[in-house]
């Protein structure tokens, strides 16, 4: 019994130490809280005006937090702790969102309240991070990245849809319809091509040529050199090993077609803006959070 009590006490102590080790949630001192001094006063003023205008027009609330580090805590968990403590967004509407940046960790996250998840979906927030914020962060323009991300979040929250993502490299949406690796015509054409190259160039050279062609096609479709190299290598192995590739026999041809296809088709309540120390950014006029709730929706990223 004493041993059991000692074990429970040890577990409680470990849990308490772990909780104490977490970075404290910063005080909610404004719509923009910068504990790193990254943003100039003019940048903060501009962001706060943008966010204030959003609330005036729509009622939704968005806040920004920049911290030096989460000290080993994953950004997802830290941002959710902040969201639950700050409770941005209206109560029972839950239309709040939070942009959290851990500057020294080079990590960031957009946390979204329940009421905005229909507009700021996981996919949409990921695109905002990848297309609007991190490119500027990588270039050293932190103020520009935060501003671009916030402005896009505001527009999406107000109903603007993101444009379709640009296709990688030189491909177009029409081209993808024809080069889709799941298209049976593409698969059949590659099988015939592989058989012809083996016939004219020999087993090894023909297999190498087939792998190269398939790799280029994969690069068009996936836009990834690593994926293209892997698919090309698989196509080379399949072409090199199959002695009767392209056979017209009624059963053998079908079985080899299936093996070839399988091989390469991989084709919250009432938070308020309270005074805080050690951070820049504050709002005047008694602004207070409306009690919005968060459930972990949003996306994370790094630069």
Automatic annotation (TrEMBL):
Region (Disordered): 268-303
InterPro entries, alphabetized: TPM_dom
Signal peptide: 1-21
Keywords attached to this entry: Membrane, Signal, Transmembrane, Transmembrane helix
Segments crossing the lipid bilayer: 178-197, 204-222, 228-246
Domain named TPM: residues: 32-155
Official protein name in the record: TPM domain-containing protein
UniProt source species: Bradyrhizobium valentinum
Lineage: Bacteria, Pseudomonadati, Pseudomonadota, Alphaproteobacteria, Hyphomicrobiales
């Amino acid at each position: 019994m004493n041993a059991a009590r000692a074990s429970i006490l040890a577990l409680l102590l470990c849990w308490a130490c772990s909780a104490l080790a977490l970075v404290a949630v910063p005080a909610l001192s404004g719509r923009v809280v910068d504990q790193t001094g990254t943003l100039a006063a003019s940048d903060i003023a501009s962001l706060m005006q943008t966010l204030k205008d959003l609330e005036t027009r729509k009622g939704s609330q968005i806040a920004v937090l920049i911290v030096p580090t989460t000290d080993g805590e994953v950004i997802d968990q830290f941002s959710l702790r902040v969201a639950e403590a700050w409770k941005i967004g209206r109560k029972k509407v839950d239309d709040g969102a939070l942009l959290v940046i851990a500057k020294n960790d080079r990590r960031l996250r957009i946390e979204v309240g329940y009421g905005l998840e229909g507009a700021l979906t996981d996919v949409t927030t990921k695109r905002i991070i990848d297309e609007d914020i991190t490119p500027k962060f990588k270039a050293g323009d932190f103020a520009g990245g935060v501003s671009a991300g916030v402005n896009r979040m505001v527009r999406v929250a107000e109903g603007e849809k993101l444009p379709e993502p640009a296709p990688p490299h030189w491909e177009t949406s029409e081209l993808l319809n024809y080069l889709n690796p799941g298209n049976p015509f593409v698969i059949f054409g590659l099988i015939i091509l592989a058989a012809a190259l083996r016939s004219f160039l020999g087993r090894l050279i023909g297999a190498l040529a087939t792998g190269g062609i398939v790799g280029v096609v994969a690069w068009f479709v996936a836009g990834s050199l690593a994926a293209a190299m892997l698919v090309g290598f698989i196509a080379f192995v399949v072409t090199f090993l199959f002695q009767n590739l392209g056979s017209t026999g009624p059963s053998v041809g079908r079985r080899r077609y299936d093996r070839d296809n399988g091989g390469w088709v991989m084709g919250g309540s009432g938070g308020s803006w309270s005074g805080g120390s050690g951070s820049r950014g504050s709002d005047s006029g008694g602004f207070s959070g409306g009690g919005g709730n968060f459930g972990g929706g949003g996306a994370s990223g790094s630069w």
